[in-house]
Amino acid sequence: MLNSSVRHLTAQACLQDVFGYSSFRGEQQDIVEHVVAGGDALVLMPTGGGKSLCYQLPALLRKGVGVVVSPLIALMQDQVDALKQLGVKAAFLNSSLNAEAFSEVTAALLRGELQVLYVAPERLLMPNFLTLLEQIEDSIGIALFAIDEAHCVSQWGHDFRPEYRKLTVLHEHFPRIPRIALTATADAPTRAEIIERLALEKARQFISSFDRPNIKYRVLAKANARQQLEAFIESEHPNDAGIIYCLSRRKVEETAEWLKAKGWDALPYHAGLDADIRNTHQKRFLREEGVIMVATVAFGMGIDKPNVRFVAHLDLPKSMEGYYQETGRAGRDGLPANAWMTYGLGDVVNMKQMLENSDAPAERQHVERQKLDALLGFCESTACRHQTILRYFGEQHPGDCGQCDNCLTPTDTWDGTQAAQMALSCVYRTGQRFGVVHLIDVLLGKPNPKVTQFNHHELSTFGIGKGLSQTQWSSVFRQLVAGGYLETDMDAFGGLRLTEAARPVLRSEVMIWLRQDLEAPKRVSKVERSARVKEAYAGVADDPLWQALKAKRTELAKEQGVPPYLIFHDSTLLEILNHRPGSLTEMSKISGIGQAKLTRYGDAFLEVLEG
């Protein structure tokens, strides 16, 4: 049994022997050691940052089985397959199993043969399953409880799951077992609710940087969206795996068919498709090279495919959290990737109509509108995209990233200093507690009932903004929020308030430049297209040895019925290509090759290198 063989090892030794990595990243080591020592933890780490290692290692190093609560069946299957490749005894329990398979996993659990068990929250909350866990705790031991995608507990999060609210049962039934809650996206209100709902007030918080420096962000004004998308894929990702997000099921299917007609291997995915079709498409996307998935946001959470080279949005997402998580599915292997989006006024209208027509309570709708406005501000901002995203999550970034459209090709701007002063002054004089709609009414001099109720028609800012339209003022406010001059007070129903950065603007000590219209992309020549593709893969895309290594990986994956990246990530293949190991000892030094994979695949890849 693997647990007994690794428990005496240090976390560092287990990392090398089992996972094949010579060093931890970021705060991974602190998190692992804290949980191994029995501490509770809240972990915020960006997609691709190595969250799963933070609970998988402690599960191996502590006594008993590690129980992981996960919201998606596909994610469980993927994680279990990956652990089995490493020689770890792992399994899952969810509705996809028939009675016989369920009994087999349960029996293995009772015999103490599992190191990691994934379980759906609905299954965990069943009284008979809690009884089973109590039995396991008394006999074999429970190493830890990991609550993955912990933002699902928050009603303000972008993917609220009611059953997650009941997971406090873990603390009540198993107070001595350490719990680790993990998520890639959670703003301050969501983090606070995770702590409250899961009773993690005493947990140590590990908040990693949200920055994904390998992702290049681009936002374009929607002209002819299909032509824009075609130019983007042709120029930069003609043979790559990618995800394209659309708002409606109909648009998903039409876009997939259009891409197929253009020669790309594109598949649709949305909740309206038959479950078998969805599963088939998802497996193809995970296991084949160069497949493009066209999907609604129903697809993607927990998809552990490391070599997704681009994520494109043909429609506006619902929030910054949603946008960050969706784009975060690109470049999980750390190699260059693109986050590309077109948006237009029609997207804004559609999203707001969806909010107004939803059955959500008024308070919920109000918060969702504020989140949408923050995303619109991001789209329209002239500031560094990385800087704007990190500011939303409460993190600082110096800007000038060299990895976004605003830094690489600055857009046309106009001197918005006076407009910004009007807007900021209006926020201040109305008490820093009103939303954008009311503030614009004051600036445009509209004496409606709400304006007169608060005597705002008597303010000096009443009517001073008639030189701009309502649409233009909306853009000004969004850009001021995105630029960090205003912030949304979620606890005060989304009212706007000034930040410290607003003071020098009001004093005329700094100038504010606001975005003009966004421009459509220029079509790229075939020569430039080829150069960009080769640059993205460090000059190896056409290398015969690179192709041979990928072919061997695909062959081994097909033999086992698993996705190629579970054999080796692209980043591991690149390191093999660049270092050309001549022996198993040399290959063991390649990042991502632990003992199990070295034994299983080492000779096969050495033969490729020798051939």
Automatic annotation (TrEMBL):
<keyword id="KW-0378">Hydrolase</keyword>
<dbReference type="Pfam" id="PF09382">
    <property type="entry name" value="RQC"/>
</dbReference>
<dbReference type="InterPro" id="IPR032284">
    <property type="entry name" value="RecQ_Zn-bd"/>
</dbReference>
<keyword id="KW-0347">Helicase</keyword>
<dbReference type="GO" id="GO:0016787">
    <property type="term" value="F:hydrolase activity"/>
</dbReference>
<dbReference type="InterPro" id="IPR001650">
    <property type="entry name" value="Helicase_C-like"/>
</dbReference>
<keyword id="KW-0862">Zinc</keyword>
<dbReference type="GO" id="GO:0006281">
    <property type="term" value="P:DNA repair"/>
</dbReference>
<dbReference type="InterPro" id="IPR004589">
    <property type="entry name" value="DNA_helicase_ATP-dep_RecQ"/>
</dbReference>
<keyword id="KW-0413">Isomerase</keyword>
<dbReference type="InterPro" id="IPR044876">
    <property type="entry name" value="HRDC_dom_sf"/>
</dbReference>
<dbReference type="GO" id="GO:0043590">
    <property type="term" value="C:bacterial nucleoid"/>
</dbReference>
<dbReference type="InterPro" id="IPR018982">
    <property type="entry name" value="RQC_domain"/>
</dbReference>
<keyword id="KW-0067">ATP-binding</keyword>
<dbReference type="GO" id="GO:0009432">
    <property type="term" value="P:SOS response"/>
</dbReference>
<dbReference type="InterPro" id="IPR011545">
    <property type="entry name" value="DEAD/DEAH_box_helicase_dom"/>
</dbReference>
<comment type="similarity">
    <text>Belongs to the helicase family. RecQ subfamily.</text>
</comment>
<dbReference type="InterPro" id="IPR010997">
    <property type="entry name" value="HRDC-like_sf"/>
</dbReference>
<keyword id="KW-0547">Nucleotide-binding</keyword>
<dbReference type="GO" id="GO:0005524">
    <property type="term" value="F:ATP binding"/>
</dbReference>
<dbReference type="GO" id="GO:0043138">
    <property type="term" value="F:3'-5' DNA helicase activity"/>
</dbReference>
<dbReference type="GO" id="GO:0009378">
    <property type="term" value="F:four-way junction helicase activity"/>
</dbReference>
<dbReference type="GO" id="GO:0006310">
    <property type="term" value="P:DNA recombination"/>
</dbReference>
<dbReference type="InterPro" id="IPR006293">
    <property type="entry name" value="DNA_helicase_ATP-dep_RecQ_bac"/>
</dbReference>
<keyword id="KW-0233">DNA recombination</keyword>
<dbReference type="Pfam" id="PF00570">
    <property type="entry name" value="HRDC"/>
</dbReference>
<dbReference type="InterPro" id="IPR036388">
    <property type="entry name" value="WH-like_DNA-bd_sf"/>
</dbReference>
<feature type="domain" description="Helicase C-terminal">
    <location>
        <begin position="228"/>
        <end position="373"/>
    </location>
</feature>
<dbReference type="Pfam" id="PF16124">
    <property type="entry name" value="RecQ_Zn_bind"/>
</dbReference>
<keyword id="KW-0234">DNA repair</keyword>
<dbReference type="GO" id="GO:0046872">
    <property type="term" value="F:metal ion binding"/>
</dbReference>
<keyword id="KW-0479">Metal-binding</keyword>
<dbReference type="GO" id="GO:0003677">
    <property type="term" value="F:DNA binding"/>
</dbReference>
<dbReference type="Pfam" id="PF00271">
    <property type="entry name" value="Helicase_C"/>
</dbReference>
<protein>
    <recommendedName>
        <fullName>DNA helicase RecQ</fullName>
        <ecNumber>5.6.2.4</ecNumber>
    </recommendedName>
</protein>
<dbReference type="GO" id="GO:0006260">
    <property type="term" value="P:DNA replication"/>
</dbReference>
<dbReference type="InterPro" id="IPR002121">
    <property type="entry name" value="HRDC_dom"/>
</dbReference>
<dbReference type="InterPro" id="IPR014001">
    <property type="entry name" value="Helicase_ATP-bd"/>
</dbReference>
<dbReference type="GO" id="GO:0030894">
    <property type="term" value="C:replisome"/>
</dbReference>
<dbReference type="InterPro" id="IPR027417">
    <property type="entry name" value="P-loop_NTPase"/>
</dbReference>
<keyword id="KW-0238">DNA-binding</keyword>
<feature type="domain" description="Helicase ATP-binding">
    <location>
        <begin position="32"/>
        <end position="204"/>
    </location>
</feature>
